[in-house]
Amino acid sequence: MSLKINLPLRRAFCHTSLVVTAGVLTVMFSGSLYANPQLMTEVDARGAEELRYANFEQWRNEFRRYAAAQGISESTLATALDNVRYRKRVIELDRYQPEFVRPIWEYLDSAASDTRVNAGREKLDAHRQTALEMQQRYGVPSEIIVAIWGIESNYGSNFGDFSTLEALATLAYDGRRRDFARGELLAALRIIDQGDIAAEQMKGSWAGAMGHTQFIPSSFEAYAVDGDNNGRRDIWGSIPDVMASTANYLARAGWQTGEPWGVELALPASFDYSQTERRSSAEWASQGVRALQGELPNFESAAIVIPAGAEGPAFLVGANFRAILRYNNATSYALAVATLADKIAGREGIRQAWPRGQTPLTRDDVKELQRRLNEAGYSVGGADGVMGPNTRQGVRDFQRSQGLTPDGFATQALLERLR
Question: What pLDDT, in 10s, does the model give residues 265-281?
């Protein structure tokens, strides 16, 4: 993981990319912002499907014995596990890899749209007392709490209708990260065993993220809070619990009360875009870095984020941006939360223009880019179609060799240079 905070990641499936130059959004697991799912394959033999179900039942029986040995009660096993079904659709979604990726500016257009901003203001007005109570208790601004709610589940209107138990059982039996899903399934059974939620009400995404907050079960155990003091932690139906749990997560992820998440920047013409280190605000200022409006925040440790390269907006981000990244480790996600929160609070959003004329690379384009960088002597690892930190470093090195701005942002023009 790129951030050295000893907290488990909330997400079941997230990219561990560096903060700087995230570029494009490849996968998001947040409510209404999912990539459009398509089927990868069709099972064309009923006999094969029936065999799969039989094998799943055998796996479930074995897992039942394991869960009982781990202390899960017989009543919970009987009501929550014994009737769990294999869900083929979960595996189709787990194995789906979209060919086309959304540029970050298109994602932000949706994530922080006027519709979502207005809905966020309405939700904040409707639950202002609760939001302010959680702000006071945890030090996290009310607009940040509401913004995460909006990004995660569109304010509760879309947190998924998969049975969490069936989704995790299917992934534990047949998914890409079986051991991980097995542990999350056991955590889900503990939650039911403790009385927080009934099995049939434990709903969420295909990946096991649950409720308004989209916590996976292990994160629920670690961070969910009984905000309304009714003896249960209910992130499915209790807004006080939703807000308290979100704020508690961010507080424990290192949220610094009174600090902004960051600021939009004006960078000098001579700026070295290859810098990925964190520095103090004073050190960045000594290089000619200035806030686009007002003054730089007084950060002890801050990074410069250029999600679309030198032609797009730049941001100085501090500890609170990193705390949002603990919720979902994608620069596009953290920037969406920050931008939506600013707009909900009546502040201006991102002012500088995005390079909307750029055509994003497809997954096959990225694989070709990786192969050609390797062939040219820039060791970026396997050609997996994902713009990870090694690939971005290879892009920066190649850009520098060509006399280009080494911002790590891969474009169609850059790929053409490598051909």
Answer: 999 999 999 998 999 99
pLDDT in tens, 272-308: 999 989 999 999 999 999 999 999 999 999 999 999 9
Among residues 243, 247, 252, 251, the alpha carbon closest in space to that of 156 is found at 243
The encoded tokens of residue 267 equal 């960078």
CA–CA gap between residue 316 and residue 168 (Å, rounded): 38
**Distance in angstroms (rounded) separating the CA atoms of residues 91 and 113:** 31
Instruction: Domain of residue 406: give its range.
Output: 363-418
HEC sequence for 53-107: HHHHHHHHHHHHHHHHHCCCCHHHHHHHHCCCCCCHHHHHHHHCCCCCCEEHHHH
Closest by CA to 185, choosing from 170, 206, 196, 201, is: 170
- The number of distinct structural domains making up the chain is 1
Examine residue 60 and state whether it is found in any structural domain, yes or no. Answer: no
Residue holding tokens 């609170």? 320
List phi, psi (to 5°) of 241. Answer: -65, -40
- Quick check: pTM over 0.90? no
